[in-house]
């Protein structure tokens, strides 16, 4: 290769099938696990930085792009610097991946030594998000080795690169439950507090080994067949979420919300809390055994104007019909947090009335009978504190307007800073959530549950409510036994705390495996 670059001096050269030493071992182990065969020892390979050094020594721009045939390998592209026009390929060496024909050459490649720049850009973006309002933040940030100058030593603005469309709108929060989970996985692997939908994995300091870890986490969470090449083709959370085949922004408010459709066993159906929206259950995707698909059940009138149910029993009849469109017959697995726990219990009664088996009833931090609550106790739909409560936030009083009431803009800003998927909801949708909350609380006042067959799994928070959530409180409402688990934290943050959600996922997975196959 050195001899060819030095003696022949081609304008452009592509070396294919170069083994990537940074991930060859991990890929070999993964392929061994999938095939059941002994892992094939990786062949010796040069460090990828060597190719960049080689190109620099001989006057070539060097790029490294993913090989289309071998997941362990890359292609190395050398282009004479004199042949480049604005860092764009001039005809022969478009990478072997899909993408717009006008994409810059750098968009198809990675620089193994460039993670320091990516980390610096990520820190700068994070700082700007914390200190500047949206309208003052730059739409794009482009790193340059040096500023282009004219012959007179002035800044040559015409030589500045155009902003790449993928770098704009940095920090946009997720818009669907699946995007939220992918953003969280990006952040976990990269060691960052928050990652926006449009932020590039490699710009944030990602490299080949971290890419392997991220793909493994995505596979485990969604049960999707994703390869490393997918991340090189779509390096943002939004791009990855679009390839999961479960994202449907227009269906995110329908009664049945698919959160994870892959899996070999009957799904777990999670019933919405008081606000009617089930997106919070997306936090379980990373912690629930991947054998079980995961669906949220959401309230009527989120997607469009509809009559709201007049009783929890009426709601259960409707939800049973909706669940049967996914799973026509039992055994059914049902769970619900807060108000959703009451609905899960009522739904179990409805399925049993129809002669169907219910294998799991799980209620999360709710008591079965609210006889001490009256209709006069129900907050009005415009109560902003209730709004925060039902979107899983704690109102700490630090984001108040002058009149003391929390405004919509302030509530949305809190959500945005936390990277919440709900930050994209408009004011009308949030108003609908508070109306649903008020209606569901009125239904709770009138609800008198009866006993159901079978056992009940109760998961309560360590910071108790008044009245307390206990197995004794639930025992009159099941004919089997009540198994109680206590998880750390308090009610409002039950599905927001990573420690708490992880424990809930473990408890649910263990019980699902027990009722499914006795393991």
Shape: elongated
Proportion of β residues?
Answer: 5-15%
Question: CATH H-level name of the largest domain... which superfamily?
Answer: Alpha/Beta hydrolase fold, catalytic domain
Strand order of the largest sheet: 4-6-5-7-8-9-10
User: What composes the largest sheet?
Assistant: 7 strands, mixed
Q: Which class of the largest domain in CATH terms? A: Alpha Beta
What's the domain count?
3
Please give the alpha-carbon distance between the first and last residues.
57 Å
- Kindly name the structural category: alpha/beta
Provide the helix percentage.
25-40%
Indicate the CATH topology of the largest domain: Rossmann fold
Q: Which spans have pLDDT < 50 for at least 5 consecutive residues?
A: 86-115, 164-170, 390-403
Q: Return Rg in Å.
A: 27 Å
Number of helices: 15
- Architecture of the largest domain, according to CATH? 3-Layer(aba) Sandwich
Write down the secondary-structure element order. HEHHEEHHHHHEEEHEHEHHHEHEH
The residue-averaged pLDDT reads: 78
User: How many strands?
Assistant: 10
Any chance you could write out the topology, listing elements then pairs?
Layout: H1 2-8, E1 12-19, H2 24-35, H3 49-57, E2 60-66, E3 73-80, H4 115-131, H5 177-190, H6 208-222, H7 228-233, H8 237-242, E4 256-260, E5 268-271, E6 294-297, H9 312-324, E7 332-337, H10 339-353, E8 358-364, H11 384-390, H12 408-417, H13 427-446, E9 456-461, H14 471-474, E10 482-487, H15 498-517
Parallel strand pairs: 5-6, 5-7, 7-8, 8-9, 9-10
Antiparallel strand pairs: 1-3, 2-3, 4-6
Helix pairs in contact: 5-6, 9-10, 11-13
């Amino acid at each position: 290769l050195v001899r060819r670059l030095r003696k022949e001096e081609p304008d452009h050269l592509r070396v294919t099938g170069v083994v990537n030493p940074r991930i060859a071992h991990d890929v070999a182990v993964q392929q061994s696990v999938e095939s059941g065969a002994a892992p094939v020892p990786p062949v010796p390979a040069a460090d990828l930085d060597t190719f960049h050094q080689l190109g620099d020594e001989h006057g070539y721009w060097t790029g490294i792009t993913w090989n289309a045939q071998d997941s362990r390998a890359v292609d190395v592209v050398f282009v004479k610097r004199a042949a480049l026009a604005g860092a764009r390929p001039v005809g022969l060496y478009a990478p072997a991946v899909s993408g717009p024909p006008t994409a810059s050459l750098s968009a198809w490649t990675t620089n193994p030594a460039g993670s320091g720049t990516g980390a610096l850009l990520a820190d700068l973006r994070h700082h700007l998000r914390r200190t500047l309002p949206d309208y003052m933040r730059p739409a794009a940030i482009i790193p340059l080795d040096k500023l282009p100058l004219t012959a007179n030593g002035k800044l040559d603005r015409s030589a500045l690169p155009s902003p790449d469309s993928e770098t704009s709108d940095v920090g946009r929060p997720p818009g669907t439950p699946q995007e939220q989970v992918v953003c969280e996985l990006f952040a976990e692997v990269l060691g960052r507090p928050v990652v926006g939908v449009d932020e590039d994995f490699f710009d944030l300091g990602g490299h080949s080994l971290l890419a392997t870890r991220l793909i493994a986490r995505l596979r485990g969470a969604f049960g999707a067949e994703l390869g490393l090449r997918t991340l090189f083709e779509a390096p943002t959370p939004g791009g990855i979420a679009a390839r999961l085949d479960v994202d449907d922004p227009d269906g995110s408010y329908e009664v049945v919300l698919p959160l994870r459709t892959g899996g070999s066993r009957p799904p777990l159906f999670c019933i919405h809390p008081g606000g009617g929206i089930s997106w919070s259950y997306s936090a379980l995707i990373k912690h629930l055994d991947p054998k079980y698909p995961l669906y949220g059940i959401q309230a009527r009138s989120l997607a469009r104007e509809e009559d709201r149910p007049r009783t929890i029993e009426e709601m259960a009849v409707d939800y049973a019909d909706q669940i049967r469109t996914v799973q026509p017959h039992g055994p059914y697995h049902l769970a619900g947090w807060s108000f959703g726990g009451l609905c899960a219990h009522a739904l179990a009664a409805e399925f049993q009335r129809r002669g169907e088996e219910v294998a799991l009833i799980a209620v999360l931090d709710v008591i079965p009978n609210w006889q001490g609550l009256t209709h006069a106790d129900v907050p009005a739909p415009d109560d902003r504190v209730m709004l925060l409560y039902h979107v899983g936030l704690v109102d700490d009083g630090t984001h108040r307007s002058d009149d003391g009431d929390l405004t919509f803009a302030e509530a949305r800003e809190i959500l945005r800073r936390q990277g919440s998927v709900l930050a994209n909801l408009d004011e009308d949708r949030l108003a609908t959530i508070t109306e649903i909350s008020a209606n569901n609380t009125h239904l709770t006042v009138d609800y008198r549950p009866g006993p159901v067959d079978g056992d009940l799994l109760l998961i309560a928070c360590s910071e108790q409510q008044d009245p307390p959530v206990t197995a004794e409180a639930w025992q009159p409402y099941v004919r089997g036994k009540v198994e109680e688990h206590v998880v750390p934290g308090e009610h409002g943050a039950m599905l927001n705390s990573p420690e708490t959600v992880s424990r809930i996922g473990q408890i649910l997975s263990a019980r699902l495996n027990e009722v499914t196959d006795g393991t």
